[in-house]
Amino acid sequence: MQAQYFCTTEGTELHYVNYDEIGQSTSDETMTVSKVEKVDGKLQAAYYDKIVTTKAKNNTSYTLFNWSYDGANTVCTEDLMYGPYVDSDSDPAKYNEAARLGLLEKLKFKGDNSFTIKDGAKGGESIPDRSYQVVRNMLKNEVNVSGAAYMGNETISTTAGKFDCVKISYLQRTKIVLKTTTLRVTEWYAKGVGLVKSEAYDTKGNLDSKTLLVKIVKK
């Protein structure tokens, strides 16, 4: 039985739609599963993510998520260097550790932006705080995730199907120069898939944004 919270079938496409606070679509997102392998006893996969923003010029951006599973914990880390690498007109196929480390220094990345989903976690169990900083568009971004906890299990239905999910909630504070934004984020993850649904609310309880898995295309 699959235990990891990510897909291990290379070529599979996970299609998402991102919505704003009034429920209008803001972007379409396609994650393509790649580089599935076992390294040092850990199952690993990469999700190459293409985001196309609705009604905008220069509307396509990219990022990369690296997943791993050691038999007890699923860990996901967004590679924040991949997008800037592609934006610099470099060949995505040539992206490697040397390129990542070069950008790591340039963008002054520090901290930990990974998250872990533990097998068999109980509702109410806390998740360690984490924080990181990175320079985006020449501005320093500081992100702090706190108060994270497992909220139990929940079945989520979307146009992509019906999924048994683990539910996670946390506070995310993002500081850019002098402006700080605080959101309460709730996410639902399914085994063998990854993210199924995400909702973010502001401090007044108003919806800020939502993401839904709408289609899975298996190769």
From TrEMBL:
Organism: Phocaeicola plebeius
DUF3108 domain boundaries: 9-213
InterPro entries associated with the record: DUF3108-like
The name this protein goes by in its record: DUF3108 domain-containing protein
Pfam families: DUF3108_like
